[in-house]
Design a protein that fits this description.
26% of the residues lie in helices and 39% in strands. The chain has helices spanning 83-86, 90-105, 127-148, 158-167, 172-178, 246-260, 264-276, and strands at residues 6-7, 15-18, 27-40, 43-62, 65-76, 111-116, 121-124, 191-194, 196-202, 211-219, 234-245, 284-295, 301-313, 320-334. It has one domain (6-334).
Length: 340
């Protein structure tokens, strides 16, 4: 798998390094969106889950790392007024509730985090405080939503959903992994990639499904025609596609639904139904997960897109895709190093 060929502490020729060269008082503002796209045959439906804006300010810069403050500036969700319409889609319902809680809760509370000298996130100083705020409003917000959408309880039990949400933030590591927004900016920091394009076809083993990994990394020409002050200096793209067939699809779907449905009896009924159905016998499920990232020379991302595409195809039927996409784009920067 062509992941980073080394840490960025060891400089190698013909490589792309994602390294932080931040300075104290560096200030950047990013707009972000979290959306879901459904494709069935030729029909496409796009739903924006959340969208907003945040600011990052470097509070301190030392030889061993950086201390950075995150402030939420704007937050919105078109789903707020459409939850009742979406109640028949449990995936949208869960995603929307989670995103609304996640973002609304920290709207007026800055997050202070630190990175090492390469830009890898090391610690969130006040994660427990923010986590407690998240959990404090979780029950009341979800209760209000379930009261306004009685049928929601048919898809996922209210108490079960609250427990699932709490588990997402049960440790600092999980907090960083599940928090929307700024952690995505630092995904590749501290890594070195071989310049160019490469592909690895991994056939997997008994515990793994076959997958194809594609990596592209490149240092861009600073003299290229058409560049401006916001043009990136280097790019990294990493895409992994995993496929499974027939019974593997049934097994995976049964396991996923078992985590969501109210009780074990419904889970068993679903698994029995999946085993009996012929719909998936010749089906192919392909899950593609990728990150496309663009950076300036000082290591600040200019834009990052993370997408996950789940596609089901079967002979004689229209293919169906569900794409989840998160994007972050810098709209303002005031930096004190490597400015063009």
């Amino acid at each position: 798998m062509p992941l980073p060929n080394d840490t960025a502490t060891e400089q190698l020729p013909d490589s792309v390094y994602v390294v932080a060269y931040f300075c104290k008082n560096d200030t950047l503002e990013y707009i972000y969106s979290n959306e879901q796209i459904k494709i069935k045959g030729t029909d496409t439906t796009t739903t924006i889950i959340t969208e907003g804006k945040f600011r990052l300010v470097v509070l301190d810069s030392t030889a061993t790392g950086y201390r950075i403050q995150y402030d939420q500036l704007e937050i919105g969700s078109p789903l707020t007024d459409k939850l009742k319409e979406l109640a028949n889609d449990k995936n949208n319902l869960i995603e929307s509730i989670s995103s609304l809680i996640n973002n609304t809760s920290i709207n007026n509370n800055p997050i202070i985090f630190t990175t090492n000298e390469l830009g890898e996130i090391q610690h969130i100083e006040n994660w427990q405080e923010i986590r407690n705020q998240l959990l404090h409003i979780t029950e009341s917000l979800i209760t209000n939503i379930y009261n306004s959408i009685p049928q929601a309880n048919e898809y996922i039990n209210k108490d079960s959903f609250i427990d699932l949400f709490k588990q997402r933030y049960d440790s600092e590591e999980l907090f960083i992994e599940n928090f929307e927004g700024f952690p995505l900016l630092f995904t590749f920091h501290g890594s070195a990639f071989k310049a160019g394009q490469s592909t690895v076809d991994d056939q997997g083993n008994e515990q793994e499904y076959p997958s194809i990994v594609q990596l592209y990394a490149n240092n861009l020409d600073p003299e290229e025609e058409g560049r401006d002050d916001f043009s990136p200096d280097y790019v990294v793209s990493l895409v992994t596609s995993t496929s499974m067939q027939g019974d593997e699809v049934k097994e995976l779907l049964g396991s996923i639904m078992g985590l969501i449905l109210n009780n074990n009896s419904k889970t068993d009924e679903l698994k029995d139904s999946l085993n009996d159905t012929k719909d998936f016998d010749n089906a192919t499920l392909t899950i593609t997960d990728g990150i496309n990232a663009e950076y300036w020379i000082n290591g600040w991302p200019s834009e990052i897109i993370h997408f996950n595409n789940t596609e089901v195809t079967a002979p004689g039927q229209h293919s169906q895709s569900r794409i989840k996409a998160k994007s972050l784009e810098c709209v303002y920067r005031s930096c004190f190093n490597f400015m063009r």
